[in-house]
Amino acid sequence: MKSSTLLAILVLQALLVSAAVAKGQGPKKPCCAECTSWSGVYTCDDLLTKCAATCKTCVPVSTDKGTRYRCRDFLPEGCPCKTN
Q: Does position 27 have pLDDT exceeding 60, yes or no?
């Protein structure tokens, strides 16, 4: 009885660990070419024809070529970009 309980606990723990690892490997935010830094936090300034699927906060920007979109999410640490 004790061995089956221990086995069940180990299986559940393995499932939780693998789920946590899988969640940490979700879609990564792409780095951008130009960005703005505010207090060490970077946001992307690239204008796109449509918002990236990984972007949570997309802002429309009017341009002479029509509406473009800018992602206002914070960039992940280590993303190189040219600061404006």
A: no
Closest by Cα among 57, 61, 80, 77 to 69: 61
Rounded Cα distance between 11 and 14, Å, is 5
Whether 42 maps to a domain, the answer reads: yes
DSSP 34: E
Number of structural domains in the chain: 1
pTM greater than the 0.70 cutoff: no
**Per residue in 46-66, pLDDT tens?**
888 998 888 889 999 999 999
65 part of a folded domain: yes
Q: Which amino acid is at 84?
A: N
